[in-house]
Amino acid sequence: MGKDLKKKFDDVYESYQQGNISRRDFVKFIGVSGAALGLLGGPFGLVQNAFAAKSITCHSWGGSTSEALRKFAFDPFTKATGVKVIDAAFTGMAAFLTQVKASYPPGGEFNIAHLSAVYDYARYTDLGFGVELDESKIPNLKNVMSKMTNTLKAISKGTLSAVPYDLGQTGIAYNTDKISKEKAEKLGASLLYDKSLDGKLGSWGGDHITNMWYAALHTGQDPNNITDEKAVWAALKEQRGMIKKYWASGSELMSLLGNGDIYATVAWSGRVGLLQKEGHPIGYLAPNGTYSWMEYMYVLKGTDLDVAQQLLNFMIEPEAAKAVAIGQGYPSSLDPTKVDMPDEIKKLPAYDPTGKLEGYKFADPAYWNGHQLDWAEKWDRVMAGK
Q: Where in the sequence is the domain holding 266, given as residue range(s)?
C-alpha cells in the first residue's frame, strides 16, 4: 500500500507541477491521504520523504516584504512539501555580495536572493554565480510578463538564472497637504530640487544610481547616457544642502513621510502604496523617465535546483503571487492579460494593466556597472559634504 500511495503522490505532484491541478487541491490531497493512512509524521513518512528532508534559504528585504513571503509563499510551501524555507534579510547589497563571494563552495549556504534591478542580475551572472534553470520544471513561468523574462535572458544568453517576481518604481512621493498635485506634475523630477522645500526633502542614501538618475532627469539628460556628468554632481551637491535626511530603509522612508518630517523624496512605489493604504496624505509622481525596476528570485550556484525550481514555481502560482503582491505592496510579475488581478493590485503604484511595461525605463546594466566604482565613491563624498 505504501508503494501505491508513493506512486499516486508522485503522479499528483507531477500534475501540480504542470499546472493541471491547483495548489489548494494539491495541499488537500496531502492532508487527506496522510490523515487517512496515518503517514504524516508516521513510521513511513512517505509524503515528507517524497521531497527528502531538505531546506532552502531565501534572502530578501525584511519588513513587510519578508512577512508577505513567509505568510503566503514559504509557509504554504513547507506545509505542502515538508521542505523548510529559511528566510533571511539582507544587511546591505554590497555586504551580501561580499558574503556570497566568500562562501565555499560558490554560493555555499546562499541559495535564493530576492535581488532588485537588472544590473545586479548582470553582476551576479558575470561573476559566475548563476545557474541555468529548467523552465519545463517551472510551468507557471508562462504567466510571467514576457518583457521581464526576455530582459533577463538577454543578459544570460538565452537562459534564466532567476524568476521575475515583482516590479516597481523608485518614483517621487510628496505630501499632498503641502504640495499640490498640479505643482508636482509641473515640476516633475525637479520637485526634488525645489528651493521652497529647503529642509523638507529626503532621499535614499544607500544608492548612488537613484540619486544620479533623478539629477540626470532634472538636468535634462538620459539617465542611461549621461553626457554632462559635472551638471549631475553639481545638482546633487546643491540638493544636499536642502536634504533633511538621507533615509536608509523602507521603514525609515515611511516614518519620515508619515510623520511629516519631509515633504518630498524619491521613494519605492510599494512603500508609497502602503502609506496610502494607511490613509496618509501621500501622492505618487512618476515623471517621464521614472526609474523602474524588476525584482526576481535569483538562484545561486550550488543550490539544489530541484528544490529551488519547486519553490519558484510555487511562488509564482497565481494564488500565492497575488497574495504576496498585496502583502508587500508591489505588483507581481504575472501578466494581467493572462491572470485576473484583484482591485487591490490594480490600485498599486507602478501597476501596468497592459502587461507590456512599455513606459518603464530600466537601468542599463552595462552602463551602470561600468561606472560602479567611480560613481559610488563620488556619491559617498557628496553625502559626506565633501
A: 169-292+362-383
